[in-house]
Amino acid sequence: MQLTQASRLRNVTYDIRGPVLRRARQLEAEGHRIIKLNLGNPAPFGLDAPDDVLSDVIKHIPDAQGYSDARGIQPGRLAVAEFFERRGVAGVGPDDVFLGNGVSELIVMSLQALLNPGDEVLVPSPDYPLWTGAVNLCGGRAVHYPCVEGNGWQPDLDLVAAQITDRTRALVIINPNNPTGAVYSPGVLLGLLDLARRHGLLVLTDEIYDQILYEGAVHHSAAALAPDLLVLTLGGLSKTYRLAGFRSGWLVVSGPREQASDYLDGLELLANMRLCPNVPAQHAIQTALGGKIDITHLLEPGGRLRDQRDHAWQRMTAIPGVTCVQPAGALYLFPRLDPEVYKIRDDEQMMMDFLEQQHVLLSHGSGFNLPTTDHLRLVFLASVPVLDDAIGRLGTFLADYHQ
User: Fold this and answer.
1) For residues 79 and 215, what is the distance between their CA atoms, to the nearest angstrom?
2) Is the C or the N end of the chain the one with fewer CB within 10 Å?
């Protein structure tokens, strides 16, 4: 008997870890050195976790041998609640916090508890593609609202409103945005939240990059701006605290819970079914969020992330026919290849050809649910010499590339 995948996977894609990455692994196995600028994974680039956090995790290993509360350990949940209180989110306590094996698990859980077949969720385009894949996996339909490159990749509120139907259940906000690096203005956020208010939508806000900001950019928490709305805020330790491998994330419920009690019961059921999140990693949360860990030195002029962002952006935009909105947050460039100069029909194939010819691994723009094939994503976590090398190879490749 031929064994096939479940039909619900037919509309689920996660192209940024698809064929191009598989080919990169094959080339590495054959002995080639690949410059990998495809994933926002700090550790391989020497951006290590704070020593205090690691020490506390090691100290608590003997205490982490049994299951914890299904929502996570009390000190970790309390630390998250206090962190949100300091950020202006009122009325949140440890019982409103779910810890998880990374934000990814919590995204899936939040949608599993919400969606019936055919329900719609508004997701930005471009997006972090796990959101679209998770909506489809849970039986829903991801409806993409456009973010406008000419306006710093801010969402177009009129176009968001035009996508809302009687099947729309939720609105996803990714701020700061992956892959564009946009940090949404208060006006745009208030406009999105007003649409959710008028149409009775659950707000799901992905704020994993909330502290990675450049040149005075300010992150505004959606939950703090809309205390009258039910908002699920997702964040974690993987980026700011450089603990991607710990898979330590959180989901915070804020706003009125009364009319959402049935949904929240479903969320707790799913939390119970996984028994509990990884217990050793939970012991990193209290130390990380305690106020002594500061990433500012990496983001100011002269700081590593700021200098790498600036250098990568300057080198990328120096390539003829390439433009790029300078990211105000996060860890990525999302440059555009002028279609009049580069006539690309298949951007995944372009990234495959670039990998084969120059041994550099990047991500294609359509993998982030962008409807066009004229963008790519580059992670600027690597050192300046490595970025110089990789972007130089991209310029050489594009100079005579044709499909």
Assistant:
1) 28
2) N
pTM of the model: 0.93
Instruction: Tell me the C-alpha distance between 279 and 218, whole Å.
Output: 33
Nearest to 178, CA basis, from 4, 323, 330: 330
Separation CA 157–CA 191 (nearest Å) = 7
In a 10 Å sphere around its CB, with 0-12 CB exposed, 13-18 middle and 19+ buried, how is residue 386 labelled? middle
State how far the alpha carbon of 221 is from the alpha carbons of 69, 206, 252, 325, 329, in Å: 27, 10, 12, 23, 14
* The CATH classification of domain 7-48+297-399, taken from the options 3.40.1000.10, 3.90.1150.10, 3.40.50.12240, 3.40.50.2300: 3.90.1150.10
Element (H, E) at 120: strand 120-125
Q: Which among 163, 165, 129, 168 has a CA at the least distance from the CA of 145?
A: 163
State the CATH class of domain 51-288: alpha beta
Domain boundaries, the chain: 7-48+297-399, 51-288
Whole-angstrom distance, CA of residue 136 vs CA of residue 117? 9
Rounded alpha-carbon distances, angstroms, from residue 304 to 183, 211, 300, 331, 383 = 20, 15, 8, 12, 8
DSSP β-ladder status, 120-125 and 376-379: unpaired
Distance of CA 31 to the CA centre of its chain: 32
Stretches in the chain below the pLDDT threshold 50: none
Q: Which amino acid is at 287?
A: T
Integer Cα distance of 318 and 294 in angstroms = 33
| The pLDDT value given to residue 5 | 80
Which pLDDT does position 130 carry in this prediction? Answer: 95
379 torsion bin: left (phi>0), alpha (psi -120 to 50), beta (else): beta
pLDDT at 15 (0 to 100): 65
pLDDT at position 372 is 96
- Report yes or no: 316 and 322 within 8 Å, Cβ to Cβ: yes
